[in-house]
Model the fold of this input.
Amino acid sequence: MKTFDYLLDIRQRKGAGFLQLLDPDKLANENTGNIVKHAQDSGVDAFLVGSSLMTRDVFEKSLGEIKKYSKVPVIIFPGSLFQISGQADAILFLTVLASRNTDLIVGNHVHAAPLIRQHNLETISTAYLLVESGKFTTAHFMSDSFPIPREKPEIAASFAMAAEMFGIKLVYLEAGSGALESVPREMIHMVSKSVSLPVVVGGGIRTPEKAHELASAGASFIVTGNFFEKDGNSDKLKEFARAVHFKELKGVIV
Ligand code: 1GP
Done:
C-alpha cells in the first residue's frame, strides 16, 4: 500500500492520525530504537523525519536507524535539499506557498525531482502554510514566509483552495516547532470545510486535550515534536494517540 493511501485509511478508521516528528539533529543514535518502538507501541501512526535547520551531518544515519525499528511509515519532512533519501517510505514534496522566496515555492523542487525519481521515493505533494503563533519560530524564519494572521482563517482557506486547484494532496498548517500557540481551531475548521484535502496540523501541541480539540475541529493529522523530546513526556504518548483517534473513543471523556 502506498504511504498516502495508508494515511487516508488511518484517517478514515480512526478519525484522525497521530504523527510524531523526529528531528535527526536532536536524536542520539543509541536512543533511537527505543524512541521509535515506544512511539509505535503507544499508537503513533507514522513518523515524520526532518529539521528546519540541520547542524550535524546525521540525516542518513538517523533515518536509517529510525527505519530499522519502525513498523509504521517513515516520511521525510524536508527542511532543505539535504534531506532527501531513498531509505524513507515517502517524502512530503513541500511547497511553501506563502513564501517570499520563489525557490521554496518551486525551485528547489527542480533539483530534488531527479534524485527523488532515482530513489523511487513516493512523493506526497503538500502545501505548507506557516501560521502566526505568538513567536517567530525557526520554521517561520527558514521558510521566508509572512505567517498567516491567526484571526484570518479565510486567508488560510484561500491558500488551501488554490493548493487543491493545483492538484496538491495535503495541506499542512504549521505554527512552528515550539510555538507558543497552536493553529487556531477556527482556522482548521474553515480550511477543512473549504477543501477535500486532508489537513495536517503541527506546532505547539502540548496536551492531549489540545490534540483532541484540533482533530475534532477538522485536522486529519496531528503532529507533535518538541513535547516528546523532553525527558519523561513519552509516557503521555498513549494519551495523545487516544485523544487524536477520536473515532475509537467509546464513552471516554478527554
Ligand atoms: C511539526 O513543527 C511541528 O509541524 C512540531 O511542533 O515541536 O511544537 O510539536 P512542536
About this structure: Residues 47 and 74 are 5 Å apart (CA to CA). The chain has one domain: 3-246. The pocket of SN-glycerol-1-phosphate is lined by residues 21, 139, 174, 176-179, 202-205, 223-227 (CB under 6 Å).
